[in-house]
Structures are given as structure tokens and as C-alpha cells.
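A favour, since you know our C-alpha cells better than I do. Just paste the record in under my message, thanks.
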Amino acid sequence: MEYCMAAEIAWRAGYEKLKVVNVDWPYLIFGKTTDYDLALSEASITDQRKEFVDFSVPYFKSDMGVLTNVATPVDEKTIKTASVGVQQGTTGAAFAIDVLGLSNLNIYADKSELLNALHNGEIQAAITDTLIALSLEVADGGKTKVVGQYKSGDTYGAIYPKGNSNNTAFDKILQSMLDDGTIKKLSDKYLSSAWGKDPATVPYFKP
């Protein structure tokens, strides 16, 4: 979905080509990455991150999902003492520490490391955006399951270089894509199969 969003933004901005580059998440979100126009990576908008980068108008909403092994699941009570993993520099990590107050916490550099830790039993559960957790469950072939989620009110936005002169123009394009239904069409086309279920059917845990 986000790749198609980027292509549409580039087209509406008058560019004939789109160049996509993979970068390390911590470098991107803490403003260490340069020489780019915008980044789309299911990035939650937070005040702390705004110190390092700028964000677009919000284009999506998500909460915090709990992904666990099917063979050794956790629930709303046992997650308090379980070994839990999060990805470095994410809102999931901040939520696990600041809101849930989890002490038995393991931090990983990226989603693949986090999922590997869950597979090999290093952790009992992983906390990340519900939408990301659901996509991991689908890709995992029945080994893991999203057993619950926490209400966090996260919204996704495109990441812009701090103070870049193009940010306002890109915001206008993104808003037009929201207004004319383009983003909803992309969501309907690509995300339903990626999630495997309606996120609203995942039960909510109390912090």
C-alpha cells in the first residue's frame, strides 16, 4: 500500500521516476538519514519523534497488538510477567515501558529479529502495531497469533526531513489522496489480505 502511495505522490508532484531506498529504522526516525523526500514505513506520529523529523497529515490509525506463539500463548494477565520483545525505536517499545511497565523486556533492532526471537522461544510475546502484528501472523503460517491489542490511538504519517521546503507540497498531495478516496482504495485492495482479519475483531486488553 505504501509503495503505491509513494508512486501516486511522485506522479501528482510531477516526477517521472520514483527511487526507493531501504534504510535503518533508528537512523531514519532519529533524523540521521538525509537526502530523501519522504519515507513511508508505518510510522506512528509522536511528539518525541517530531524533535528529529517532520510528519505528514495522518493517513492511517492503529493500536498495539500482542503477537504470541500458538504453542505457548500469553493472555491479558500472564503478559505482565512474560518475557516480551519489542523493536528498537518504535511506539511499541515506548508503550511496553511507559504504559504497561513491563520489566522482563527484550529489545531488537528490526522486525525479523523480533520474530526470530519469538520463534526460538527467547521471548513469549511481541508487542508492535496491531496491523504489523496481524501481517506477521499471516506470513507466519499458523505458528503465531495476535491474541489481543491495547488501545493506543496511534496514527501513521509520512516522515519528512526536518524543515524541508517540499513538506507543505507533499502534505497537500497526501490530503488530496485522503479526500478523493485514493488511500481508502489502496487500503481496501492491499491490506485486507495482508491482515487476514478485521483488526476490530482482535480483543482489547486492559493495560
